[in-house]
Give the backbone structure.
Amino acid sequence: MSNEIVLNVNSLSISFGGLKAVSDFNIDIKKKEIYGLIGPNGAGKTTVFNLLTGVYKPEAGEILLCGENIVGLDCVSINKKGIARTFQNIRLFSNMSVIDNVKVALNEHYKYNTLQGILRLRKYFECEKKMDEEANNLLKVFSIDDLANVTATNLPYGKQRKLEIARALATRPKLLLLDEPAAGMNENETKELMETILKVRDEFDMTILLIEHDMKLVKGICERLTVLNFGKVLSSGNTNDVLNDKEVIKAYLGD
Amino acid sequence: MNRLKNKKFIDKIITFFIIIVAYVVTDVLNNMGMVPSLISGLLVSFCTYSIIAVALNLVVGISGELSLGHAGFMCIGAFSSAIFTRYMKFLGVENIYIFIIAIIIGALVSALFGFLIGIPVLRLKGDYLAIVTLAFGEIIKNIFNAIYLGYDENGFHVTLKSASALKLKEGGFFIIKGPQGITGAPRYSTFLIATILLFICVFVIYNLIDQKTGRAIMALRDNRIAGESIGLNVTKYKLIAFTISAAFAGIAGVLYAHNFHTLTASTKNFGYNMSITILVFVVLGGMGNIRGSIISVVVLTILPEILRGLEGYRMLIYAIVLIVVMIFTNSPFVINYRKNLKLKFNKAKGVKHE
Amino acid sequence: MSFIVNLVNGISLGSVYAIIALGYTMVYGIAKMLNFAHGDVIMIGGYITFVFMTDMGISPILATFLAAICCTVIGVLVENIAYRPLRGANSLSVLITAIGVSYFLQNIALLIFGPNTKSFRSVVPFSAVKFFDGKLIVSGESIVTIVVCIIIMILLTLFINKTKLGVAMLAVSEDRGASILMGINVNKTIALTFAIGSFLAGIAGVLLCSAYPTLTPTTGAMPGIKAFVAAVIGGIGSISGAFFGGILLGVLEILSRAYISSQLSDAIVFSLLIIMLSVKPQGLLGKMNIEKV
């Protein structure tokens, strides 16, 4: 693991109608690290994701992606800067085929314009061929390439989750945010997912920040953790240290 | 190798094939005098409404936004092109090149309006586009009903007041005469030209859908938030779809304007009801289904002509069918029911369901 | 003085728009749908009153009340049959269904009452009132319309803020999911909203037809659309917004008809909508909704 910092967040805060949803949130994630963000329901984890991806604008604080402040940018620009995400409640392009779900995320990286496409010029065929290849390779990583032409909404649940990750990766991000990737999965599926996440990290040199409730998954793959409670950082550090922290245990189990 | 790619390709080819065959067969029969006059008089109209239905399908079915003002774009295309051809006729120039220029004028002016109206509105979510396009269509209709445009030795004159307020010199003539509209625009619209334009329209829209821009448009239809999260600019893509759609609606207007002797911006021609009728074509042909829109136009235009006795009930039946189709295809309850039914059916057949 | 006459007429027309707009704004706020057929309920109200008064000789007040009741029933039926199955479906399909319902109502009226214009007898029992030694003449319809509108506004505001049902409506409009958890019957609440909206539409229909006594199957369409425009301009979901939007639109329409061009008055009214949405998309008194991610 290198020591290059991919994400550095300083004293990030936001409130909704007077309620401090997230206050003074700090985090720094190194390249190729798998970092966990955990905490009880309503602790503000997804809000942190929404702040990082530009869905909400923070009231204070800064978000440095590879040293560049991205506060104030909208979702589209932030994705172009290099943050991609998945959603807690899966959001696929449900009426499109599996491969088109991935190809549409590749749009930025293949330059041909609308007119070239309408007139079917050579550039169109060249780009489309390369897009097909790259999309297929991504599907292979998640072993859903055999389902490339199935409509996304017809995929079984676990594979929908995988497709969502594949789609996020297709934007070639520097940082990947996974919002409860194991939600609704059984033990086998979760195990498979853990392997996939590790594989993604190794094959794409990816830095990953994930929200998760499944402690097995967290213990299994996260190198470091931050625990949120009532919008504040309760504890952060190496996974084992954090999970043995008395404050953390108290927050989870009550007094 | 790629089955889906093939499927899209075959779908496109079938549509092209149908258009060409339909044209050739109708034309041959027509020359032999075997097409009833009722239908031969409707041939250009079939193409006109097919073009605008396909154009609206791009907005409603592909882009997932509702426009209730497409008759307005048609109106703009009709009037802008007819002003040009009527003026050229006055100068004594009447040929096919004039009509080609007129088609380009109609498409561009209509596209420009589509673009301008789209900028503020497409940023908004929900049903706003529907209400604004409806308002837009009414504004356009009102303006073309109130405008007087004339030409004499001193050049063009425009007023919103009355015919006499134009103060045309002797030898001048009216291009638009208020509610009486444009009279005597050349009748350039032939079945052949109309079919070629329909072919171009279908070609462009199929090739727009099956490329990166089209995928982005459909992705934003399916899930706007996810689309933004992968870097798709909502306004840009919605605007592309809307502008192209407006351009083809304009072309439909050009065909319309040069199919009849007079062109008026009456409620019947370009009002809100016209927009709704086009929407009915799209919905019943299948949202997002290009071929379906064309078939739906032909069937729904011929059907009432055949079933004359039911004329009074026609719109009522449209209304009921519209409601039933929407409930059957979109109700969460019905969708679940059908899914379960399919599952049972597959089980009975012994098919493994994933 | 003619300006003041026009202004009063504008406020009167605006009051009708405001009453109709209430129906739109409440339904939009609570069921999150644009009920395109709302305008046609106005027309139905007009026809029913017409039949009661002209064919059955029932007194105007009673006829109005009965018509409003009939509209309520129709509104609830429409909600039950056409809209309820689509709850949770995408907004496009709901909107198209509403357009279907609108067409259905218009064509039913066409079949029953025919395409000919019916001349509506005003329900207002007294004629014009003179102010300032006859310099300012205000029609009875105008006065009644404005008064009825104000009464409705007050009653509705009280209902929503002071009664259990009203608070339930507020709750559903804020957060449907949470309302279900709190034991609120969402289906009933939405039906109630449609009932109130349609009742008001019935009254608006009678007032509209009294002031502009021509009745055809499409009578409700344009006022309906304009009332929706008023609701959007005022801020969709806001009751006071519907009121101010309605008055603003009515005054603008009458003044532009009087001083600019009668043919372009609709164009001017609709232009205001486009300008408003470009500048302040949430409307005068509305609030922006943030979609949950």
